[in-house]
Specification:
By secondary structure, the protein is α/β, with parallel strands linked by helices. The protein has helices at 13-23, 73-76, 80-90, 102-108, 124-129, 155-167, 170-179, 198-211, and strands at 2-6, 30-35, 39-42, 49-52, 54-55, 64-67, 95-99, 116-117, 133-134, 139-142, 147-150. The chain has a single domain (2-184), classed as Rossmann fold. Strands 5-2-1-6-7-11-10 form a 7-stranded mixed β-sheet, with helices on both faces. Strands 3-4 form a two-stranded antiparallel sheet. Helix 1 runs parallel beside helix 6 (155-167) and helix 6 packs antiparallel against helix 7. The protein is globular, with a radius of gyration of 16 Å.
Length: 212
């Protein structure tokens, strides 16, 4: 089964690489990094390069599509070439998925019209404006519609494990999870704005300004 992971300039690396690390552990799944043209794209801060191995024209019938997020998604909302590819391949996928602000792209393509969906906490209002119904769940599934969205960045790992369960079985999913030793025990319970102080959020804003 082919899993097409879309790459574009200024994506968030873990949005793509988190699910990839899960999915590539399963022999029956074949991840391929797709984009407008072959070659390197740089992630949102410019420090890291990822490689597009196949163009959108070369990947027309993937079993799974995954659209990561990042500041670069804002450019994609008006990119009809990218959106048209999402629409075309979604018609035949087993699952069309997103991580973080990648859900904005699915919404702009019409995939999330009227559906509950999630993304990074900072983009939920944008989701509403694009026709989706934003919720704060970690992973949101609409299995009859073949759509799954994940919240910010690290939530893509959770979604990747769930995808393995849906595509193969729960034993394969558990095997992938234990292989990557995904056993979260974070030093702080600070994974969402609702769990942190104003001081922490002020620091988040400072960091965002530096990286913008």
């Amino acid at each position: 089964m082919q899993v097409a992971i879309a790459l574009f300039p200024r994506l968030t690396a873990l949005d793509a690489i988190g699910p990839y690390e899960v999915l590539q552990r399963v022999p029956s799944l074949e991840p391929v990094f797709v984009g407008e043209r072959r070659g390197e794209v740089r992630t949102e801060n410019g420090f890291l390069g990822l490689t597009v191995d196949a163009t959108f024209d070369e990947v027309q019938a993937p079993d799974v599509v995954l659209v990561p997020g990042g500041i670069g998604t804002r450019e994609l909302l008006g990119d009809e070439s990218f959106l048209d590819w999402v629409r075309r391949v979604h018609a035949g996928t087993r699952f069309t998925t997103s991580v973080c602000s990648g859900s904005l792209v699915l919404a702009a393509a019409g995939v999330l019209d009227g559906l509950t969906a999630t993304g990074h906490w900072s983009v939920l209002d944008y989701l509403r404006a694009l026709g989706a119904v934003p919720v704060t769940q970690r992973v949101v599934e609409h299995l009859p519609k073949r759509v799954i969205t994940a919240a910010g960045v690290s939530a893509g790992i959770d979604m990747g494990i769930r995808l393995v369960e849906l595509l193969v079985d729960d034993v394969a999913a558990r095997a992938a999870q234990v292989f990557i030793e995904y056993d979260p025990q974070p030093p702080f319970d600070a994974g969402h704005p609702s769990k942190v102080s104003t001081t922490v959020m002020e620091r988040v804003a400072e960091h965002l300004q530096v990286r913008a």
